[in-house]
Design goal:
Layout lengths: L2 H4 L2 E5 L3 H13 L3 E5 L2 H10 L4 E5 L7 H11 L5 E6 L3 H9 L4 E5 L3 H26 L15 H13 L6 E4 L6 H10 L8 E5 L5 H9 L16 H4 L4 E5 L6 H13 L1 E3 L6 E3 L3 E6 L3 H7 L4 H7 L2 E4 L9 H17 L5 E2 L1 H9 L5 H15 L4 E2 L6 H8 L10 H23 L4 H8 L3 H10 L10
Parallel strand pairs: 1-2, 1-3, 3-4, 4-5, 6-11, 6-12, 7-8, 8-11, 13-14
Antiparallel strand pairs: 9-10
Length: 466
């Protein structure tokens, strides 16, 4: 939890006194500042006097309900984050609240962990929104980089560099490891350029066989080769008026590098089998995970083409160097997966997030996205758990590449489970003032199961009485 999240102010509004007491205890233990109100009117007065980072309100209350309260609050602060509390019988109304702008909802009764997951997700979303707003101030007013998610210093610096070259109609070389999002950067570059109304044509030079790449790029006339039954324009012609992305340009054959250079120098393209040149006007953006400078030294990439495409050089940082962005991206991909599949999963557990944040991500953002979608598909509980993660991540834990705990994977998992159970039982007893029956109810465990856990760790209820 970041410092900004730990000192956040939360307003809880509910007409049930026990619910207010429980929420206050849970949130105060996590170092949040908490105000409570027993009615919508009282809640609105508290909010008016002291703005809150998050509002949690019951959906149904006497006189004025949660929807009306949210509407009144948003007259003061239009983007205020609101979480709705609802009983199972009002779930359709809760979904309607989401459509009306509520950030999320919690079904009653909920566990301590379920409440904290929703609160943490909302506050992380708020922090990301604020940091993106700060970033926007340092970029041109019209610059939009919504598809690129992240709040690390490294990604902000990359976006600032991107914003400076959008309106400068010169060739750009984007380099970065596989999976970092180079094509996404190129798309944002195009969308914010003077050519935004023209086409954006992307071609992966490594994915097209060498024998076909020339005809794909330059086009051909009828009869130029066997099977050319009709004339066809190439991707270079199709990009005229817009942007041509040459992804993985380091894999382009040397013979085509010379032909591409001539097109870039003259602004004309000649189809295969034609003696006529056609004028083209496009911006070339190149992307590669290779070191083109080293390839020039090795003689596998033309130096003159390198100079021509490398007027401006942008570097997309690898995910392992983007401090704090793994959690932000994981939440982003999870929300996108949940909204697309409508699976009833509340979030990513703290244990799973710990593994995600410590993994090295050799496949970068693409690998993280695939990992979250896989985990979401395999999750059997209300949260994504460590065992739902891809085998590569669990192997990294077992092999010691991720230091969740000392020892083997099984030892580490056993120690983590024991630490969680001990802390969880103690926290529930603290919330219940030492009352074992009430603590078991909060945990949604039978009294016998709760007592067995107390005995396992030598925990006494009397130690938590007021």
């Amino acid at each position: 939890m970041t410092k900004s999240e730990a000192t956040s102010r939360i307003l809880v509004v509910d007409d049930e006194a026990d619910m207010l007491t429980t929420c206050r205890k849970i949130l105060v233990l996590e170092n949040y500042e908490v105000d409570t109100a027993a009615s919508a009117a009282e809640g609105f007065d508290l909010y008016s006097a002291r703005r809150h980072d998050l509002v949690i309100t019951d959906l149904r209350m006497p006189n004025v309900g949660g929807m009306e309260l949210m509407a009144r609050i948003r007259e003061l602060v239009p983007d205020q984050l609101v979480v709705m509390l609802t009983a199972y019988s009002t779930i359709e109304n809760a979904i309607a609240a989401i459509r009306s702008g509520a950030f999320d909802f919690l079904r009653k009764p909920f566990t301590m962990d379920e409440l904290l997951v929703v609160v943490l997700r909302a506050l992380r979303f708020r922090a990301l929104r604020e940091e993106n707003a700060e970033l926007s101030k340092s970029l041109p007013r019209s610059f939009k980089a919504d598809p690129i998610v992240g709040r690390s210093k490294e990604i902000r610096q990359a976006l600032q560099a991107l914003g400076k070259v959008c309106e400068i109609d010169v060739p750009v070389l984007i380099s970065g490891e596989t999976g970092t999002g180079k094509e996404l950067f190129a798309q944002v570059l195009h969308d914010n350029s003077a050519r935004r109304d023209g086409p954006f044509i992307a071609v992966n030079c490594a994915a097209i066989p060498e024998a076909l790449l020339e005809s794909e790029l330059f086009g051909y006339e009828r009869g130029a080769f066997t099977g050319a039954s009709a004339s066809r324009s190439g991707l270079i012609e199709s990009a005229s008026g817009g942007t041509l992305l040459l992804d993985e340009i380091g894999d382009m054959p040397m013979v085509l590098q010379g032909k591409l250079l001539r097109t870039l120098e003259t602004g004309h393209v000649r189809r295969l089998g034609s003696d006529r040149e056609r004028a083209v006007d496009f911006r070339v953006v190149s992307a590669t995970h290779r070191d083109l400078g080293a390839m020039v030294g090795e003689g596998t990439f033309r130096s003159d083409l390198h100079f021509r495409i490398n007027v401006v050089h942008l570097v997309v940082p690898p995910l392992r160097e983007r401090e704090g962005d793994v959690a932000v991206l994981a939440e982003h991909f999870f929300e996108r997966f949940r909204s697309r599949t409508r699976r009833a999963i509340d979030g990513i557990s703290a244990a799973a997030m710990l593994i995600l944040e410590q993994y090295g991500w050799p496949g970068n953002v693409r690998e993280l996205r695939n990992a979250i979608e896989r985990a979401g598909a395999f999750a059997e509980s209300t949260q994504v758990m460590p065992e739902d993660l891809p085998p590569a991540l669990l192997s990294a834990v077992e092999g010691g590449q991720i230091a969740v705990e000392g020892g083997s994977f099984r030892e580490s998992r056993h120690a983590a489970v024991e630490r969680f159970e001990r802390g969880y039982i103690s926290k529930q007893l603290r919330l219940a003032g030492g009352n074992v029956t009430q603590a078991a109810h909060l945990s949604r465990l039978t009294r016998q199961a709760f007592h067995r856990l107390m005995s396992k760790y030598g925990i006494q209820g009397d130690d938590f009485r007021d």
